[in-house]
Amino acid sequence: MKIECRDVRKNYKKKEVLKGIDLVLEKGKIYGLIGRNGAGKTTLLSILSAQNPASFGNILLDGREIWENAEALSHIYFAREIITSSNSNASGLKVKEYLKLAETYLPRWDKDMAQRLTELFHLDRKQRITKLSKGMVSMLQIVVALASKADFTFLDEPVSGLDVVAREAFYRLLLEEFTETERTFVISTHIIEEAADIFEEVIFLHEGKILLKENTQDLLEHSVYVSGKTEAVDRLIQGKQIYCPEVLGRSKSALVRLREGERLSGGEGVTLQGVNLQKIFVVLCGGEERV
Ligand SMILES: Nc1ncnc2c1ncn2[C@@H]1O[C@H](COP(=O)(O)OP(=O)(O)OP(=O)(O)O)[C@@H](O)[C@H]1O
């Protein structure tokens, strides 16, 4: 089972938010969707789940268009922020009523799991959603996403507002569910480092385009931060794929992306350092604001 996104574009009036997205999401993987504020992550996830029409392009599940295709959509669930303002549909609902509603429209709903997770997160089923704290609303979003049992489950900033204990609990639950099932998860997050180990692949969405989609481990193994005396660094990085070279006095630094089979060996006056996912993201997507 796979989802294919073919040349998907989205305009809001004259503003082009997605600029030709080609993407394949395979079964049985956890993807991290990472991008700056306004990069288009929520828009992309809403289009991948047919909650929002694309302006151009197609989304296919095993070759079949998902738009107005109830069977295809029964395999896809997008857990987006529950809007708790007074004019939202969820307003006024109690937690148990919201879960009941989820049960009616999610064909693979796991009631026992929803019950278990609600207890685990200490969510009061009688509480109105509008009275929940921000973190508790995120927990409810996570409960529904996991209990949806959808083959493709998308979570938009699921850990937003969660304290560190609840975030750890979420990552653990996600991994448990992932190892027991063949489900695919796409998680958008701004908290990159603590989730980096969970993502089998990362997708960097930058200014409406996919800048990178790669196995996380490969990406980390093939990224090296080089610094040292300018001449020595220049010799080392010659012919290599480099990002953000910076010169400070007689020193130079740059991020090097090694191609398959390429190696770097440090010499006199040069330091080689591994980089983490957050650093790679800042270098590739940070632009002028990078520090
Ligand atoms: N319904 C809408 N009408 C008009 N513009 C919109 C609408 N939804 C999103 N946008 C615009 O599209 C762009 C992408 O928004 P989107 O919410 O997809 O980004 P994001 O990557 O999820 O951002 P964040 O990380 O801040 O949540 C932004 O410039 C936003 O203002």
Q: What small-molecule ligands were found?
A: adenosine-5'-triphosphate
Question: What is the CATH topology of the largest domain?
Answer: Rossmann fold
Level of helix content? Answer: 25-40%
CATH architecture classification name of the largest domain: 3-Layer(aba) Sandwich
Q: Main sheet, how many strands, which sense, barrel?
A: 6 strands, mixed
Structurally, the number of domains stands at 2
Strand order of the largest sheet: 6-7-8-3-9-10
The chain-level structural class is: alpha/beta
CATH superfamily of the largest domain: P-loop containing nucleotide triphosphate hydrolases
Low-confidence stretches: none
Number of helices: 9
Compact overview of the structure:
By secondary structure, the protein is an alpha/beta fold. The chain has nine helices and 14 strands.
